[in-house]
Amino acid sequence: MQTTESYDLIVVGGGLAGLTAACRAAEFGLTVVVLEAVDDPSYLCNSRITGGIFHVAMNDIRVNPEEALININNSSQGFAIPELAKTLADNAMRSIEWLKSNGIRFIKGGPSPELGTVLAPPRLQQFGLHWKGRGGDVLLRTLTDNLESLGGKLLLGARASQLVMKDGACVGVEWQNNRDESAVTNSAAVIIADGGFQGNLAMVGKYISPAPEKLCQRNAQTGKGDGIRMAEMKGAKLIGTDKFYGHVLHADARFNDKLWPHPMIDSMLVSGIAVDRQGKRIIDEGLGGVAAANAIAKLEDPLCCTVICDQVTWRGPAVEAIMGPNPNLAKAGGEIITAATIDELARLINLPVDQLERTVKEFNEAVAASTTELLVPTRTSVRIKPVAILEAPFIAVPVCSGITYSMGGIAIDAKARALDKNDQPIIGLYAAGASTGGLEGGPNSAYTGGLSKAAVFGMIAGESAAEQIRQASNY
Length: 475
Fold this sequence. Notes:
Strand content: 15-25%
Radius of gyration: 23 Å
Structural class: alpha/beta
Helix content: 25-40%
Number of helices: 15
């Protein structure tokens, strides 16, 4: 096994979190190498194909830290670890200013609060990804250039396989190149930032869904969970691995690339109902699209679900959403079933007629009486109001769960230090971005924002590693 030259810092993963950490550490004078598993200079990762929206808990990232913390706590309903929530709130805008200082440009993406800070140039609102030359692609290329100008190195085709430990401290990484040749690179510290485990079906099956092959991989499919696995092998604690960020998509999105990442079916689902093959409601639609995607993924058969709505929803929310299902589903080749009556709709989608009629009738009566919370399963209506299914023709769409990134992972503290099972820092080991847990997830699949989490904790991981190394070597 080859031993390469040593560095002050090794960063595992070349996405937003990893390159932010690497650049920030290099700004302090550290020698830094980033290990990126893919050997293509345009390597795909979620950061490259991102829509580019920087928000905090679906609110404007530019609000003051106190308001941002309230938004995080309201979204997570107490699940987010307090010190991590405060760190995100306190540093969200600082991370944006740091990115701007590194040449990253932003625009206002629309009137909604969460669209106040979007990477430029924005991703095109067209079918498919169209990432080349767009915000995420420019972001990674710019940060890579900056890292190299600071003396850092991005090593492509280097897939990390094992952490090197000495006396309880992390002192390097073992990795393989594309010829399966192994090498060891030594360092004073390691930052794990290689994304979540959404692209690893075995891990998705272990933590998220009994049938991972029935989910749509709404992601770059390069997040294999290597960093999470390596850290756990060396005693790191994992947290919140049962939830993911994603959306409800047309069932055909699993093999029709025009149907992901948009159009999402969320806007139809949260106004209407989601039923199984028996014609019964199976989830709480009012919790929103991310929670619905998680609930559907947990089902024994994640492909058993159909979303049903009426013309009020189809002409309203289904149109108003970004690249909404009306009319984009049909344009992308997604099947839409319409019928003049619920009876006819049930027959067309092969559901028990009596049961579907009973389900719709009970839902409509609860909406009229404002008692949807008494339905089984309950239908919350605090944030999203249900719409009675009354106006024909009625619409049915077969759906699936689309997974973008896993929300849980390595437990960290406010300095991005990886924690062991006793909640003590593992010396020399840090983590950032989707490799970490503790901010997102919980009972309602709270979503605080993948890009903001990556930028903030990537920045802090780089700073913390630099502080550790300076103190140890009197930099």
